Amino acid sequence: MLSFSRLAYTSLLTLLSPWAKKRMARERVNEFSERQRAGHISPFEKPVIWAHCASMGEVLAAEPLLKALQERHPNKQLVVTTMTATGAAQVRQRLPEARHYLVPLDLPWNTQRFVKTLKPLVGIIFETEIWPNLIHSCYQAGIPLIIANGRLSPKAFNAYKKIRPLMADALKKVTYLAAKADEDAQRFVALGFPETRVEVTGTIKYDLQLAADFEQQLTHLKENLNLDARPVWIAASTHEGEDAPLLAAHQKILAKQPNALLILVPRHPQRFDEAAKLIQDKNLNLARRSLEEPIQATTQVYLGDTLGEMLLLYALADIAFVAGSLEPIGGHNLLEPAAVGVPVITGPHLQNFSEVANLLRDAGALAEVEQAEELPELVLNLWQDKNTCQTMQTAALQVVEANKGAMQKQLTLVESLLP
């Protein structure tokens, strides 16, 4: 039976479903995408462990836990759902033995159809994906759910507070919350999550695992790109409104360091061509990763317009600027450059990664700017000051190493729910 809050939510979503379907059509992965959004999937011969990751970032964060589950439970089928096509691409690349589907639109008839066919032993929802009808369909079918790497930013919390009855109705049906920090746990509880079912485990993003052949891949890439000991900095996960000021900063760097190279990596694939045009409009010499264009002596910007190579691109650089922080986006994963030993710079908007930023800051592993105009001086100074660079690298690696272990805690929680 629908509670009043879920009835109101379902009614509103039903009215908005034509608009929602139009938006979702952008995230098409194959000819069955529309059917998957309606909850149509194929049945499985093996028992299923199901994980839901919103997009690329959540897949990358979830990878260590999901790989551990695959290794420890080879007789079970891992199924991963995502909201986006970029998330789907990461699942296919990083978890090739998993089955991928797009998550159904959160209407009861879709979610019931999906859960009835899937019949998972357990469901793992990563970070902040709270879909009331999907959660209710699992609860109705007796499927235990865990929110892993549970994260609730102040912005998301304030938005969810406006619909607290709906959130409380959904959250009380979740078996466990593995929160990444005390602050996140407190926000979930304030929304109605039962406090007795909360465990603060830390974030599995610290358990980031490099590929076994990572060093070989990196050496091969460096040889192919002909970097020739050039000073290199990277601006990664950029959003609309950030590329232009970052390119302007690079032009100022070039005025003092003519052989400097910027690796620019837009966050979303649909912006790759837009970023390429912007670089050309700025009269900067461009090479594109997707076209396998070599870096010439005259190349000034290398566009990282591929998926799944972020760690390799970070490792090519001497200094990393993590974007999503110049605009009020909330920042992106500061641990990726830290894990490959690259000094980290960020902008002022860090609400999504405040805990990680605090640890890196306290360790002396993080440099911060208020605006892009401050970057040229900072980048040039770090290139010249090798001791400071080395200190930041060492401190960043130590922070990552000291905070590992969340993956094992969350694995234990998930396995406690398996029959």
TrEMBL record:
Ranges annotated as spanning the membrane: none
Keyword Transferase: yes
3-deoxy-D-manno-octulosonic-acid transferase N-terminal domain sequence ranges: 35-207
Record pathway: Bacterial outer membrane biogenesis; LPS core biosynthesis
Location of this chain's protein in the cell: Cell envelope; Cell membrane
Occurrences of domain Glycosyl transferase family (ranges): 247-396
Reactions catalysed according to its record: lipid IVA (E. coli) + CMP-3-deoxy-beta-D-manno-octulosonate = alpha-Kdo-(2->6)-lipid IVA (E. coli) + CMP + H(+)
Name this polypeptide is given: 3-deoxy-D-manno-octulosonic acid transferase
Species: Marinospirillum insulare
